[in-house]
Amino acid sequence: MLLSIQKVCNNKISTTSNQTKASIVGRLTIITHDNPDPKRRKGTLFLNDLTTNDSIYLRVDLFHHELANTIVQITQWNHIKLDNNNNIEWIEASLNNIYPIGNLAFSSLQQILQTEQIAIDLLANIPDVSIFSTQDLLLLNKRCLVSSCQQEKQEPLHVVGRVSSKPVRNLIPGRPAEFYIELIGFRGDTSTMIIFTGDDLLHLYHTFQTDHWYVFMYMETVAITIDNQPVRGALQFVSNQSRCYQLDKDKIKQIKTISPPIDDNDEKEHEEEGGIEQQHEKQKQLFLPPPAILRSAESTSMTTYEGIITRVIEPSFGVYELDHDVITCLFHYTDYSLVYPYRQGTRIRLSCVHMLGIGCGSTIMQIWNAPTMERGDYKTHIILVGCLKTHIQIIEFPTHIRCSSFNTRHEANPWSLSLYGPIFKECINTQADFDSLIQKLEIQASLIHKFKNSILSAKLLRRLCRVFTNKINKTTQPVFGNDWYHDIFQHEQSCSTVKTRASSLELKRYPYVSDIVKLLLEDEERTLQLSRHAGERGSSREDLRVDMTMALHNEKERNLVIMGIVDAMPDGRLYILDDTGKLPLVVLSENAQEAYDLYLGDLYRIREFELVKEDLGYQEEGGSRVLLDCNYIVCDIKNLKHVAMVKSVKRTSMSITEEVDYMKVKGFKRKHTDHENDPMDIDTNDDSQQQQQQQQDSKCDNIDPNSQIMLHILEIQPPILSYQQDNSFELISHVQAIRYPVVLDDKNNQDKRPQEVHLILSSRTTSLRYLPQLYPGCWVVLALLTNNNNNDKINDEFQVVETDKYNPKKMKLPPIPPTLIVDPDRHQLITSHPTQRMIEFIPTNLTGVYMPPAIKQIYSTKPNDRIYQVKDIIKTTPPKKSSLLVNNNNDNDNDSLPSMVEIGKRFFEDTVNVQGVIVDKGFREQASRAKGAIDTNARQIFEEFGVGTGQSGRNQLFFRVRQTDELDTVDIYMDAWNRTWPLGLIPGALVTFYHLVRKKSDAGLVMCQMLPCSYAKVSEQLDPRSEMIRTKDIPSKNLQDLIKNRKVGNNNNNNNNTIKSPDDVDYYDPLVFKTICSIKSIICVNLWWKCGECGTVVKDNKCYRLCKKAKRSFTANALAVISDGTFQARAYFDGERLVFKLLNIQDSLVDGIKTAVLEYGKVTYSSYYEQENHYTTGEEDVGEDLQPQGYDHLAEEDQELLRGGVTLPKLCRRVTSTGKIYTLFASERAAKLKKDATTMQQLNLRAVSIDSQKHVAIVKEPRIVVVELELMDPAASAWDMMMQLDNLCTYNQQVEQESSSSISSSQQQQQQ
């Protein structure tokens, strides 16, 4: 049975010949004219009905130009009906199943090939016919090339070769069609290009297939010119003259000939003939390029791949999956038809495609679920990119007829349309290359999948994507498709589709917030182990130290763009978030107000930041490891770039038109202003989620203008966790403020005065979200929302708390100000952040009415806001006026210094604000405290609220803070069991602590304790590896001075004895000093690796307790005896940096020593200095924390640390034998006096036996803690001393001259 084309087209669904048991009859035609219909573009093969005007697109695996305009019968076929609306359909058939009408014995292909074989046999019998290969064409420039005026006389050429590439057709509307075929010779080292020009030659394009041999007859040579200059030669296929035939293996051997040799003598004779003008014309002909060229090695870099389409990913961009291994992108393969995509199961062969690798972290690759392939030690996605030189041949059609329209594939997900549609149009309009295309898709996919739930306005999100994608390669040259010469003839040098010449393409990625931690920490080159730097400037306990890692990110150094919504959460902290997760955000700023000027809820881009990971994991009593991390981002306010307004679009803000004198203002007048329209033009036709967002934003419109008050914020207490009566936990922050009445501008009477009030911000009511917008000294408006359907006023919301209720003993307590629990469902806090919706307020000052006394007292008793340096607060004696104040803008001497008045339990009277650099952080053991519900649920509370340390009983945090430019330190303690984990307080952070209370320890050391009202503000994150310390300003001191400055007795003692009491501890200077000394001896050195889980020694990279996830850490400390010529002292070195400096180990050898120690587990050296000199008496605590856990033997001589038999004892002996001079920076370590201390201990004396009968008392050597060690150059030091001496002499001479001149002048005056 035969079917007409009309009947086939009338089918409503796809069908096949196996179902109909019929053949299709029609006429094969090729469209040779311009047609605006994309379904009938020029060069397309159609099958026309014999009786009607119906036609259908025919997709075949092979074709021959002799079949054009012939009537055929197709026995095996598939009719694909893609879309009923657009009437997209086609027929798939193999050329082996196409027969001449009425003749089913031989297929059309068999008949045509048989005819061509006969024609090739006849070629061999034609006399004087030479068929050249491509390498022979290199010698034809003298024989065959002629000038433009002689082209009619040139002899035609016959060429044989293999088709290596078949570029796409150049179909420019209004111009004749043109396409090219590249031939290579038998050896494959030469190639020539054949040019086909004219619409009548379009039927030949489907004939040629890559890697097939052809012979071309009667070709002509032409020159490709650019700016009228010949750049390359080629062959021209002339219509109605040239012929081509396909060769099989047998015919290739038959046709393979060698062209007759070119006789140079004949050429010389031609040159001698003719006049001078003809010779010049011949010389011009010699410079014409030959029709063939040598192939470069880069021309073979194109890939040929054959596979089956296993998945249709995105046909609009030509993205298909082949063999479950690779994907394709045929967007720049202009012969690819969007109307007629390939179907799953089709076997295709891609010739001359670019094979590129794209990293596994690409978002668009994850969305496409692209397969991965291993390349060495990493995995990557392989993508085959088609260009203008690519050719795709269909090898086999699938047997099924399933095919889904790419226009309706994503009807269930409208976001997919917004993902691909705009990019497709944008790349078509801008002629984007593949690098730009895939980058635009990466941006579009990342932003939509990051923010489709956070940014509920689809129109806003599309606009945001368009802003970023439009920035990609705006000035890329050359533009795709505008330079066919380079794309076709010089493709090995440049390709306008794929600009990169590397085998992989690195995309600028927009990672999810949930992937930032893993993505940055896996790059070990950019990570810094802060724990290695902690404690190197003083003593610390390794087992209680927090393991901290910092990863640096700079957008300019890596192709990562970090974007997210910056908003506050119910725990009162800032976060950067998207649809995948959130990370706490610490914003650094020099000005305290800058950090509060963020537009919360808007989209930001972080250009540079530090990612911090604090490991708070611990080991449970059962031995299992609890993994607990605190990850957050630290960035400067300058590196936060505002990208788009999201939530702040509908937000209302306030502004005060005049400068406010808070001591005189009595209220405010409100100006009524009309709200401006939304500048972002939010789409009102969004889905229900977008309407919900608009309803939330509309709260700003429901502010009651008659129920508003102005608040001046005085103090803000950090959030404290409390346990409520309903067995729940709640974070609460108390805010102290002054309330001022607000009236409309047409009302001048104000019957209320300023009053102190308290605001309570709670995590239960989510009002802690307002906390990041508040700071002491700011002005905010508190308004009542009108959607409560009541007539309440804002002042009625405040409640007076009766103190008698909480005072059963009737103690005299100050009254509690009116208090308000802020509820965002009822109240709205309006800040001064500039927005499009602004309300103006005018202050009204007092006229003859005095400020209420209570308000005056509040402003007059505000805490001291001065910020001191560390050196100012660690002194235990009243110093002179400080010159190290951070902000010394008060001329009052008494107010410039912290109070030295002590109150009970060694506490000082006033609280202080201290600025310094954190050098150490860890946990400290705390005195027993009754455990409550917070301790019992420590881990749950940390994961939910970020409060505490995550472990019950681990309640106190320790910080060692160093002066900004010197080495003096102070210890600060914080009770963290009910407070949020302090973010940003890591080594290298420049921090200001507010409201610290000072305390003097038993050893006379000043330390600080954080109160519930204390808080810390990080202003800068320094690199702990490259801090600048002004060592020249550190005072020098002799070791003998440490003994002289000690207080031997207490003059105030009633018994007038010389024995010190335990309270008398002011006998040493806590400040850091420097001294020039030598290493007398090394008492002990400890090097070992410790398990991060159980604390035991790690040997051979294995923990003795078999911890599965053991994170080892290297520990080093040492004790040495130093001497400066005046006295000796015992110096304690903590940290690998100081210990390796002591041992004179070069930086290049450190890793080798640490690897050797890992093999032994622990290496310890101990000398017999103490026993020989009767150094210890068994009653001191020096070196108590130097021995590693479980160690009970000395270092052996065979424990080799370096090659050549270098052991730890040899290194220690080498240090003492070299006699090098050092500049040592240290602080004195005080001795702890016990209540039952003996007289000798209180006098810092020890008994030393001279012989068996006599004992003498000697002064104990002072103990110091080393914070820095520098090797001194004796020659340079000598020159410095000589320069100082010379300067001193010069100064003395000037003083003598001035004094003599003054004496002589006074004598002259007396004589007069």
Automatic annotation (TrEMBL):
Belongs to the CTC1 family. GO terms for molecular function: single-stranded DNA binding; telomeric DNA binding. The keyword Nucleus applies. Keywords: Chromosome, DNA-binding, Nucleus, Telomere. This is CST complex subunit CTC1. Residues 267-283 have a biased composition (Basic and acidic residues). The lineage of its organism: Eukaryota, Fungi, Fungi incertae sedis, Mucoromycota, Mucoromycotina. It holds the Pfam family CTC1. It comes from Circinella minor. Its main location: nucleus. One of its GO terms (cellular component) is CST complex. Residues 258-283, 668-702 are annotated as: Disordered. GO terms for biological process: positive regulation of DNA replication; telomere maintenance via telomere lengthening. It is found in: Chromosome, Telomere; Nucleus.
